[in-house]
Design goal:
Distance between the termini: 22 Å
Shape: elongated
Largest sheet: 5 strands, mixed
Number of strands: 11
Number of domains: 3
Order of helices and strands: EEEEHHEEHEHHHEEHHHEEHHHH
Radius of gyration: 24 Å
Structural class: alpha/beta
Strand content: 5-15%
Helix content: 40-55%
Length: 332
């Protein structure tokens, strides 16, 4: 369920993790050209540089967690290799925000791991998956996949709840403020776009049907335009995924007409009918809306049962509707 939560649980703020104190002024190499990142241990034995920001950390911890770093550190370095304060310097291509989050995970475990009182920001989960894969930190990759599968499940009864849309399409402002109901991850509706993209990149097909379904509820202009996250990164669906949304819309409209046709007749319930038609792609919402219509108790029970069965039928066909090939859906 998507809720504009009045009382947010504490989140971890990684945006300020990369404040730049004055750079070091001693040692070997072109020290002055680098700014010092917040992960700087005076007894560290390796300096990692990305986007002109230097992080001084420990080879041993990196090697223990990452096969890539372990192999990297075994390569002999030439005598004239760059050094900083006596430590070897390794240049990386990640953004400093991304790599800083990875270092926070590896070197500051107590302040990032999810607890009943603390959620992980979606951007951190994304970093866990992307850099966990790149640097072969397998437990981070698996934890990230598990968290995403909790939000985008394969079973309908594990979906967020009553509805992921209101009677109006989600424009960009709404989509960037409506929170997904998750105990572990802090994310908003528009993050479904980034979720689809990373699911495609890392072949996590099980989260694609529900993630694409969430994207289906967003305003069309937002889908076509994409959105900028807090780091200034543009997230936009691939044209093939955009096309699958437009194709799916017609199918979802047909399912929706079938669902409401048993309950609402336009000539008898004009207001309710046109309100429901307006939300024609939100076919997985729970059945509470039925009880806003003037019916007898027996009719409520009958139509509730009928709607629930049709809702499950839509869910069972979600992978086919969004043309996600090579996936057994729904899976256990």
């Amino acid at each position: 369920m998507v809720t504009p939560s009045p009382a947010k649980r504490p989140r971890i703020d990684f945006e300020d993790d990369h404040a730049n104190p004055p750079p070091p002024t001693s040692g070997n190499g072109p020290v002055s050209i680098y700014q010092r990142g917040n992960h700087w241990f005076e007894d560290g034995n390796v300096v990692l540089v990305t986007e002109n920001t230097a992080f001084r950390v420990y080879q041993g911890i990196l090697s223990k967690n990452s096969d890539v770093f372990r192999d990297m550190f075994t390569i002999p370095q030439p005598a004239d290799a760059e050094k900083m304060e006596g430590c070897p310097v390794v240049h990386l291509t990640d953004t400093k925000a991304d790599f800083g989050r990875l270092l926070t995970i590896l070197f500051d475990v107590g302040n990032w791991y999810p607890t009943p009182r603390r959620k992980l920001p979606f951007e951190l989960v994304s970093t866990m998956l992307r850099l966990g894969t790149k640097y072969q930190v397998e437990y981070l990759r698996q934890d990230a996949i598990h968290l995403l599968q909790q939000i985008f499940p394969t079973q309908l009864d594990l979906l967020w709840g009553a509805s992921i849309a209101t009677l109006e399409p989600f424009n960009q402002k709404k989509a960037e403020t409506y929170e997904v109901d998750s105990d572990a991850v802090e994310m908003v509706l528009v993050d479904a776009i980034a979720t689809v993209n990373i699911a495609r990149t890392f072949d996590i097909k099980t989260i694609l049907p529900p993630a694409l379904y969430v994207c289906m509820q967003l305003d069309k202009s937002l889908i076509m335009r994409g959105f900028l996250d807090k780091s200034g990164v543009l997230h936009k669906l691939h044209p093939e995924d955009q096309l699958s949304l437009w194709k799916a819309e017609a199918t979802l409209r047909e399912h929706h007409a079938s669902q409401i046709g048993f309950v609402v007749q336009p000539e008898r319930h004009r207001g309710s009918y046109y309100g429901l038609v307006h939300r024609c792609t939100d076919v997985l919402s729970e059945s509470e809306w039925i009880y806003s219509i003037d019916l007898c108790a027996n009719c409520y029970a009958h139509f509730d049962e009928d709607y629930t069965a049709k809702r499950q039928k839509v869910w069972d066909g979600l992978a086919k509707i969004f043309e996600v090939d090579g996936l057994q859906w729904p899976s256990d």
